Amino acid sequence: MSLQVARFNIASHVSAETAREFDVALHAAAPNSLATMVELQRTVCECVNSLKAANLGPVQMILAMKACALDSAGRHRIDSDEYPATTVDLLMEQIIRWAIAEYYRGVS
């Protein structure tokens, strides 16, 4: 599945407000701050629930969440090479773990 399709899935099935909340939470998140990580997890779950409600499968959901995070990183690019890893790079694996857990929450 292409990144273009993944971006379409986010734009089509996640409200602009939810996507913006994810964007803000992602860039405010700090791995050593419980409050910011809890907010990021909440927004990840909102996005996942929107995608699941639109009947996207788990693979499409994961790709859409990655696209959402990557696009967010592009909007908040640091112009310095001093810190080459962005917050998104550091948090992507955790975002996907939360997304998968939320997608399958309640499924027996």
Characterization of the model:
- The model has no long low-confidence stretch (mean pLDDT 85).
- The chain has one domain.
- It is built from five helices and no strands.
- It is an all-alpha fold.
- The protein has helices at residues 3-13, 16-28, 34-53, 58-75, 87-104.
- Helix 2 (16-28) runs antiparallel to helix 3.
- Helix content is 74%, strand content 0%.
Summarize the structure.
The protein has 108 residues and is mostly helical. Helix content is 74%, strand content 0%. The mean pLDDT is 85.
Secondary structure blueprint with pairings:
Elements: H1 3-13, H2 16-28, H3 34-53, H4 58-75, H5 87-104
Beta fraction = under 5%
**Poorly predicted spans:** none
User: Structural class of the helices, strands and pairings?
Assistant: mainly alpha
Q: Which quaternary structure do these chains form? A: single chain
Distance between the termini: 27 Å
The number of domains is 1
Number of helices: 5
Q: What shape does the CA trace take?
A: globular
Rounded mean pLDDT score: 85
Largest sheet: none
- Integer-rounded radius of gyration: 13 Å
Number of strands: 0
- What series of H and E elements makes up the topology? HHHHH
Helix content: over 70%
